[in-house]
Amino acid sequence: xxxxxxxxxxxxxxxxxxxxxxxxxxxxxxxxxxxxxxxxxxxxxxxxxxxxxxxxxxxxxxxxxxxxxxxxxxxxxxxxxxxxxxxxxxxxxxxxxxxxxxxxxxxxxxxxxxxxxxxxxxxxxxxxxxxxxxxxxxxxxxxxxxxxxxxxxxxxxxxxxxxxxxxxxxxxxxxxxxxxxxxxxxxxxxxxxxxxxxxxxxxxxxxxxxxxxxxxxxxxxxxxxxxxxxxxxxxxxxxxxxxxxxxxxxxxxxxxxxxxxxxxxxxxxxxxxxxxxxxxxxxxxxxxxxxxxxxxxxxxx
Length: 301
What we know:
The chain has 301 residues and is of the alpha/beta class. Helices cover 35% and strands 20% of the residues. The strands form two sheets. Strands 1, 2, 3, 4, 8, 9, 10, 11 and 12 form a nine-stranded mixed sheet that branches. A three-stranded antiparallel sheet has the order 5-7-6, with helices on one face. Helix 3 (56-63) links the parallel strand 2 and strand 3. Helix 3 (56-63) crosses helix 4 (84-92), helix 5 packs across helix 7 and helix 9 crosses helix 10. The two termini are 34 Å apart.
């Protein structure tokens, strides 16, 4: 099979304005920062983002003014605080936000991955989350019903089928077989629900290595369109078994994200002011910083 390894700028060129993009990761772990930076550099607009637990990647895209719609189950920057750009955009009406639970977003992806148009669930019944969704634009994705066999109440949730799924992984081969170590969250269902899957890999490994551990292949090659090789591609968020989060830079980001003007300063300095992720990594501390963040081989962080 031909190599699917491509440069991030080449891949992002193929993502149209108005796309629905699903983001992997969780809060400040395995964020798809490499592609998010390039989306900002290329100024892709009118994006819809979906994610179970949003983090810095979502906040960056909203802060850059590229997002018109969110489908999320919550999120934060963990101990570093709130997603300030997202919260501000909600308050000002810059984005339409459909606020589900994390579990219901996962169910939506599962339906998409299974190739069915909806899935019956109970998790949102009798909740304020459902009441808010039914009062807003989220109502178009929901229907109530009674089970024809038992008479029980169910909620029918429309499948979530993103145009593009972005997932950061620890290892992939050139064909696109991917391994994710540690927590996976809903990333497998999210990827398989999408029309296109793009992975960002910390390491490109031989296919023979993949074959030696077949149960670790979470996303198979035949579903993957492109592989972007970028060590430290999730910085400043963490990647289990590779490196920890960069607390110093995350705090710096939060300080900028609290204010719209300072947020634009951050984007100009660290994203628009760098040609690619490698140049960004040099700007935030270079090899010394990367060495300090490398994971303990036993603990994984």
